[in-house]
């Protein structure tokens, strides 16, 4: 592709996405090389203009998600839409988005360097790892670039999902059992890959949380617990508040234990973990009437990908995305089936599988305990974004109770597991 054939005005290609080093020319070159749909739409026409907008505001993301539209000079050519995922390195923006106050007390370099590594890991996943995992549902990748702090913007170019055809299910509507199982099918593909053809990738995915990052996360949990407390009915809040406060005081230890000290969370019995399997990172198909189906389009946001526990992604999906009833039903009736399927698929490929169901379930329970903190963050973040003047009082009363019940039963189940596995986590740390 010669440059002179691309833009109606040659110099237009030198323009960049605002506040980045990502040029229009670079974007178009990647699309021309990697997107058949782009080539079919462009044909012999030239790029007339490019527009973009950030569609990630209010979604708690560590990146700017840009919807970019390419217009052609041929009026018969439809515009081409694509997503640019650009990591945020302005820490005040990121921490503000997550509700964090007193931003100046956090180590700016630590946060920035963590985000650079996260982007690099995610780019590695889309560029190489995802192509090796049979039938896993992730967005199409059209190119990308690693970031160099203060010098070069990182970016991943990926498929745009038309909102008429699919999207994210609102947190107000927990996954039904079939949707939850549809997500678990994608986790199964990732875990089978981890034990078989992809086991060589595990030791390359070592960008794991640190004490500094765990401390930031702990403060985010505290902030959103205060939000949740305002909405939880006092009659049930009194039953769980002390346990929540005590467990939150141990959050850093809980979080780091699951990553570094839980046996089988590294080495031959570890798996590749997505690491953030919550509702905003899972896209479902819609039918012709615009209703969500039970079928996953794609799992997105792989920036936390790491080698970890077999229970991590399962617990996050069930703890955050499901009602307590659905979660419990899957835990009791479906997790044993999942374990047997995983074992069967691994052995079928003549690879060892040395985990018992008891070990598998213990890992799940440890990871569930940690995941319940992220349920608090997720609901707290959702509530903090609400404009109460637009909420119908009758609907809100019911919705508030349902969200509260998810926290209540989630905490009660977590506490019972802590009592068995690590009762010291119920003792408040100063």
UniProtKB/TrEMBL annotation:
Signal peptide: none annotated. Residues 156-348 form the CHK kinase-like domain. Gene3D superfamilies: 3.90.1200.10. PANTHER family: AMINOGLYCOSIDE PHOSPHOTRANSFERASE DOMAIN-CONTAINING PROTEIN (PTHR23020:SF41), UNCHARACTERIZED NUCLEAR HORMONE RECEPTOR-RELATED (PTHR23020). This is CHK domain-containing protein. It comes from Strongyloides papillosus (Intestinal threadworm).
């Amino acid at each position: 592709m010669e440059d002179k054939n691309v833009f109606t005005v040659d110099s237009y290609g030198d323009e960049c996405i605002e506040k980045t080093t990502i040029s229009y020319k670079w974007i178009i070159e990647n699309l021309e090389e990697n997107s058949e749909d782009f080539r079919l739409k462009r044909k012999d026409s030239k790029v007339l203009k490019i527009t973009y907008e950030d569609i990630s505001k209010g979604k708690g993301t560590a990146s700017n998600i840009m919807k970019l539209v390419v217009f052609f000079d041929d009026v018969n050519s439809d515009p081409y839409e694509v997503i640019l995922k650009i990591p945020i390195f302005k820490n005040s923006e990121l921490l503000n988005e997550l509700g964090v106050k007193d931003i100046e007390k956090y180590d700016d370099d630590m946060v920035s360097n963590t985000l650079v590594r996260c982007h690099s890991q995610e780019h590695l996943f889309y560029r190489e790892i995802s192509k090796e995992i049979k039938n896993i549902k992730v967005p199409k990748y059209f190119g990308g670039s690693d970031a160099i702090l203060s010098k070069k913007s990182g970016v991943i170019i990926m498929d745009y999902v038309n909102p008429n055809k699919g999207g994210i299910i609102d947190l107000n509507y927990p996954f039904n059992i079939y949707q939850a199982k549809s997500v678990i099918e994608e986790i199964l593909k990732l875990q089978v890959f981890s034990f078989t053809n992809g086991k060589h990738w595990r030791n390359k995915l070592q960008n794991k949380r640190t004490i500094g990052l765990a401390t930031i996360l702990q403060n985010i949990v505290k902030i959103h617990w205060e939000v949740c407390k305002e909405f939880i009915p006092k009659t049930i809040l009194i039953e769980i508040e002390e346990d929540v406060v005590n467990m939150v005081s141990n959050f850093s230890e809980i979080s780091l234990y699951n990553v570094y000290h839980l046996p089988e969370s590294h080495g031959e019995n570890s798996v590749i973990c997505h690491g953030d399997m919550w509702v905003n990172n899972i896209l479902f198909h819609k039918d012709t009437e615009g209703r969500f189906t039970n079928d996953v389009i794609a799992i997105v946001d792989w920036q936390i990908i790491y080698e970890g526990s077999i229970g991590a992604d399962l617990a996050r999906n069930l703890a955050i995305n499901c009602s307590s009833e659905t979660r419990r039903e899957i835990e009791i009736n479906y997790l044993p089936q999942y374990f047997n399927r995983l074992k069967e698929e691994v052995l079928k490929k003549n690879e060892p599988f040395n985990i018992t169901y008891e070990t598998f379930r213990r890992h799940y329970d440890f990871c569930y305990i940690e995941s319940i903190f992220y349920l608090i963050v997720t609901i707290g973040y959702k509530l903090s974004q609400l404009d109460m003047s637009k909420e119908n009082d009758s609907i809100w009363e019911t919705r508030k109770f349902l969200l509260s019940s998810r926290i209540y039963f989630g905490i009660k189940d977590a506490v019972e597991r802590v009592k068995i596995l690590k009762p010291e986590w119920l003792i408040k740390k100063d």
